[in-house]
Amino acid sequence: MMEFFNPKILFNSLVYSILGVVVFWVSFIIVDKLTPYDLWGEIVEKKNQPLATVVAAMCLGIALIVAAAIHG
Fold it and tell me: pLDDT tens digits, the chain, 72 residues: what are they?
């Protein structure tokens, strides 16, 4: 009955998920520091839609890299 549930697999998935989120967040902070302006302020306060689109694409790119590295 419990053949489909393996605690080791669940634990590994949780660890890799947390690791992926941490790597993603650190990457975003690095990109934010490399840009000449405050990304969050530009997107949220000034409603800069083109910048939000570029940041979204960057987030997807970083997420794909992290997922490929973890899955790899």
Answer: 566 778 887 788 888 888 888 888 898 888 888 988 888 888 899 999 998 998 899 889 888 887 787 775
CA distance 56 to 3: 40
Q: What sign does the CA torsion over 44, 45, 47, 53 have? A: negative
Buried b (16+ CB within 10 A) or exposed e, 54-71: ebeeeeeebeeebeeeee
The whole model's pTM is what?
A: 0.67
Q: What is the DSSP letter of 42?
A: I
Maximum CA extent, the chain = 57
